[in-house]
Every structure is written in C-alpha cells, then in structure tokens.
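As the next step, I wrote out a protein sequence along with its fold in token form, included below for the reader:
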Amino acid sequence: MKSLQMTSSIFALLCAVSTPAWAEEAKPADAAEAQPGQNGADIVVTGRAGTGARTKSETSYSITSIGEEALRLQAPTSVTEALKSVPGFWVEASGGEASGNIRARGVPVDGFGSVQLLEDGIPVQHDPALGYLNADQVFRLDETIDRIEVVRGGPASLFYSNAPAGAINFIPRQVGDHAEGLIKMSVGADNLYRTDIWVGAPIGDGWKAAVGGFYRSEGGVRDPGFTANRGGQVRATISKDWGNAKFSFDAKRMDDIVALYLGIPMRTYPDGKIRAVPGFDGHEGTVAGPETQLVKMIQGDGSIYKFDNSLGTQVKRTQLTSKFEIEPVDGWKISNTSRYTDTQTQRNGVFPNALQSAASLLKQNAGLLGQAPGATALQLRYVTAPSQIYDTANQNGNGLVIIGGLRGLTLPVKEFMSDTRVAHRFAMGSTTHDITFGYYFAHIDEDFSRYSSTALLDVQNNSRLLNLVAVDATGKVLKTFTDNGIYKYGYEWEDAHGEQTTHALYISDEWQVTPRLRIDGGVRWETMRARGAVGLKKTVNLDPNNPATSSIITGSGLYANYDKTFSHATLTGGVNYQFNRAAGLFARYTYANRMPSLGNYVTSATATPAIQTMHLGEIGFKYTSPLIDLYATGFWTKYNNVAFTNYRFDLNTGASVTEARFADTQTFGVELEGTLRPTSWFDLSATATLQDPRYKGLTYTDAAGKFYNYDGKRLIRVPTVSLRVVPGVNLLDGKLRVQASWEYEGKRYVDTANSVRLPAYGTINLSARAQINDRLSLYGYVDNLNNSLGLTEGNPRAGELQNSDAGANTFIARPLIGRNYRAAIMYKF
C-alpha cells in the first residue's frame, strides 16, 4: 500500500512540475539524446504485432529508442557501441568494430547469445551467436539506418527466436514524397577515411527507390602495422504502396574487413594502478603486427595453411529481403518478411594464449637440451635477426614472452528466414482484441573449419617472432626447436558441416479492457532439428626431430554424424495501465528459452546441449512530457541450466582444453532511463543499471577430483553498477550542439570463482555538431577523452571457472581502446 501511495505521489509531483508555460519551447528540436528516440510519442514497431499503432509510453514492456541524430552525435564505432545508452545492457566493444559482447538483464551469455539482432524486423542471423560467428560480425551500421529500437526482455522471445533477454532492431531509412539524399565524409586520427551516402526518390505510380552504403579505410587505433579496417557495403531498395498494400525488396552486399583486437600484457603497479607492462603501449598497442601478418602454417598432411591476419574478420555477404503487407478489409492485416543470406566469413586473429617470463619459459623447456648433443643452454633468438639474443632479464623493458595462438576460422553460412503474420482487430462488447497468428521458418547451412598454431612472441607493440634454440658454450646454435617462431603447428583443428531447420508458431493478443487498461500475452511453440557431421581427429608426427611438427592435430578422414531435435514453448503476459497518454505503469512475466543450434556441434557430434530456460519478470513506470522523460523498471531474471565452455590453454602440451559446464543464475535489478529539458539550450540524459547477479548451485569437480563450490558468486563480467550521463548544450539558436558522455562501469570478475577482479572504471567522450545551414553540418568527436585503461575482460583462455591468472601481478587483459579524434562533414540534398 505504501508503494502505491509513493507511486501516486511521484506521479502527482511530476505532473505538477513538468508543464510550465515555456515547456513546449524548452524541448530542443535536435537534442541528441532526446530527439527522436527518447520521446514517448514515438511509434514502436519492435516486440509487438497487430493492426494498431502503439507509442513508447503505451507499451507494456521496456524499450529504448535511438534516433538518427542521436546516432550521428554518438557516432558509434561498432554495433555494440551503439547500444551503450541502453539500460540493462552491459556492452563491451574493445575488440574492435565487430566481435563485441552484450550481457543483458543478468543473462550470463557472451557475444550476442542473449539478444537477437534484427534488421527491419527480421533476424540478421537466425542464431546471433552461431559458433564463433556473432551477428555483429556480419552487420555494419551506416547512414542507410534511420533509428534503433531495443526491447529489453518483455515479449522479444515471443516474436523472435534466440531472444531471451531482448531484441535490437535496426530500422532502415524510408523514402519520402520527394527526392532527397545525403553524403557524409569522415576522417580520423587513426588514418580513418570514410564516406557514407544515401539517396532516395519516388519514381512514379507509387514506386520508390533508394540506394546507399559506405566505404572506409582505417589503420586502427591499435595499429597492427597494416590497414586494419577496409571495405564497405552497398544496398538498394525498391518499394511500392497501393494504399491498402505495401511491398519492398532490399538487396545488400557487404565486402568488409575489420581487425580483431585481443588482450594485451597488463601489470598491477605499486601504486595500485593497472597499466600495460613496460615497453607496451596500453592505449594504442596490439600484439598483432607485421611479423604475424602472413604465416605459412604446416598442416598434418604436409600442405600449407596460409594464415593472413591482415584479413582479420573478413565478411563477404549477400543479403536479399522482401516485405509484403496487405489490409484486405478493415481490421485485418496480413504480412510477410523473408530474408536470404549467403555469407563467407574468414576470422583470423593473434590470440595471446599465455604470458610468462622468458626465464621461466627456458627453465620449463630445459629437458630439450638432451636433444642437442654438446648444447649447454637454451636461448631465444629473433626470427628476423638470428644473431640477436633475447635478454631474459629486461628485453623490451619487461623480459616477457607470449605464447600466441595464430587462429584461423572459415565459416560459410547460407540462411533463409521467413516470418508470416495474420492479424485481426475486433470488438467484443466494450473491449477490443488485436490478435496475431504467426509462423516463422528458418533453414541454415553452415560449414566450419579451424586451424591454429602457437608462436613464441616477445612483448612489445606489434610483437616479434622468437625462436627457441640450443647453443654450446661459445653461443653457437646447435638446434632450433621452433620453426620460424612457430612453437607447435596444429594445436587446434576442426572440420564440420551442418544444417538446421526451425519452425515456430505463435499467437499474441492485445486486449484493450478499458481505455486505460490493456492486457496482452502470447504463446510460441518452436521446434528445431539439427543434423550434420564433425570430423574426427588424430595426431601426426611429420618430423620427430622438429618439435613444431611432431604432434599436429589433423583429420582422421572419419566423421561422426549427429541428428538432434529440440522443442519448447515460450509464454509471456503483460498488463499496462495508462494514467493518461503521457504516463503509465506496466508489469510482465515471461517464460523464455534459448534453443541449441548448429553452433553447439561445430566441434563435437556428441555434444549434449540443453534447452536453456529462464523466468523473467519486470514492473515499470513510464512518464513523458516536454520537460522530462522518465522510465524506471525493476526486473528479475532466473536462468536455468546455462551452458558455458571453460577454455584453458595448456602451456606444457601446447594444446587447448575445453570443458562444458552448466549452472543456474538469479539476478535482481533496476533500470533507469530519463531525459531532462529545463531550458531550450540545455538537456541532460542519463541511464543507470543496478543489479545483483549471482550463480546458483554452481559446483565443479576437476580432473584430479577436487571439489569447488561457487554458489552465490557474481556472474562473470557483469558489473553491479552501470551509469551513463549525457549533458548537452544547444547554442546559436540550436545551430551548435555540444555534448559529453560520462560512462561508468563497476567492478566485475573474470571467472566464476571471482578470483580475478576487473576494477571499476569511467570514461568520457565528447561530440559536437555545427549546422552551417539547412544542408551542411559539421561533426567532431573525441573518444575516450580521459584515455581510460578500463579493463573490459581478462584472459578467457586462462579459464572461466578458476582463472589461472588469480594472484598474478602480470597478466593478459583487454582494456578500452585509447583516445581518438574524428571529424565528419554531412551534406543533405
């Protein structure tokens, strides 16, 4: 009762203070965080179906909208970066323009495994976390996108597969009633040169056409010594409107390369601060470099695998999308959206598997001396300078070496997805129902291959290759135990093919009980069949005298088959009460799931993935006015049987070890999102997430029989506190806007044992827009102004159950990308 009285008091206070006489003038037309996208009057198209329109303030679930001008002022460098203003989402984009991580509402899954990535209402990729292929790797943000809608929890899992914690919808720009277009050119301090373009026009008799895309070349803030990011995409759209029917066809072609930034050597110094080790630039340095750009890796059959790290994540993708909608009679609507994709992805990276002192590496390999008669010592020598002896005490100011993994993955994927809906709105007495019947179909064909080798590297920016050699008393090299820096060829090998077919039926109903009260709910039944073959392995010895080729993992020529079927239901129910058009309360419960997919079988035909189920509850308050927008949501997430892989690199054998583990989790949290516009020249937006995410019943017995109990430990990587505050000023009658963002992430943990802590950090970004005239605008950006070295992740290859870096003074971690400057000029025509 007290909580109800408090809610009523808050609502009355907001009504009393939020409508001063000057209020309509106080809302700036171009406020970045407020226009459009923070306005409760925006029409919502994501997370619902039916014949009628629904505004943000009328929805019975949590949704964040990000408009085009907010996107331009934020100028996100990746899909993941675009979502950092979404409360309830922890986003991590330190890996570069692709391969980001999102954790949403306490769902303990990395990558895009907890949220679905949509473009124009249909998935970019049926499974957004498909076996080393996240959906953000095959999608690029450009000026053909008009806005973003993000559904947090709620009914996302009713309408979309693989969306237990939400759905992110990138909505393309639409052609208006007259010809228009824009061109935007961007430059950056990291040798960025980029051009975006979009042109659209009516072409007669109700037809409209548009074309757009981007091209860019960029060295990268963490410069690998070659052009890290290069390429672009182009799309063309044609549409027709007959009044009661609409049709569109969109074709998009991407040919793009982006770098994959991985962890770097970090150290805790006597002052308690964590910085890069001596000799390494934490802000701009990367382990990858010219010496690891092109490496010919020997395979088990003696052939050569050409590892080309300049390709990074290379995506060549053709995407075809058709949309059809018809209203045959009043109150009925039939629609279909279908998408076909053909994607070729090559994903290469230099992974820092392990870090240690050079002296300990030599001591660890002392047994090799017996293979070199007359040898008295082991040394490290540079591959490109064989006479240069590595100083184990202080080479590069640190005396450290990295055992790096040169990992190459090839992932061709073809998909067809189709979503058909039939909606009917009708009256029943004084109430109305808006019912939708839907059918979703998806078919996926995926090939998966991986080949990896380990290399010895020194620790400096653009690390150099090292050879391990045995020398006599005079320093003469008697035997080399590595092959041009390669420590072990073929420590990973995979070859698999699979196909998956998914069918889903769903029904939803929006029941308007009274003008103020609406109840909605739905049921989804989904079934999935996956079948394929996974290559079985063997270890071969190509040369007993060459340790690098003495134990190569390769294919045996035999394959193991799998054929699995899974089915499950999703349920959701919500209620929304509107005090008026501007304010309301909502509550919702959802029983969601995440189905297994082909990604569970790319390395093992005998894998036993479980259907991961979860209970999600939320209750929220919404209020919007010219002065203030406020959205507050409390949420609860119980995740059952979450699967994760504990990956560890074994330095002694040079092999990787994986262990599949399962756990339950429970999270209670609060999301806050708001914008304050007290005057025409100033506004303040903020988001906050406060949560308590913990493992439940997580126990573990290792190979030695030792028992571990991690019950009640914090979820890995998820902070308990996340804040983002964006003050902005509008000057010169709105022609000049300057805004800053302060982002804070609380402490997090690398492993489930909570033995390795990632400290809290804050970062500041600046952006500005100068509108020269109605057509010409200038933009400027400073990313990470304070040059924060905030750590976003540790070394997952050291184990995510009990991390082997626990207690270490020097370790591998991935910090934020360093300070960078960018500028853009945009011309509308």
About this structure: The helical segments are 2-17, 23-26, 68-74, 156-159, 358-364.
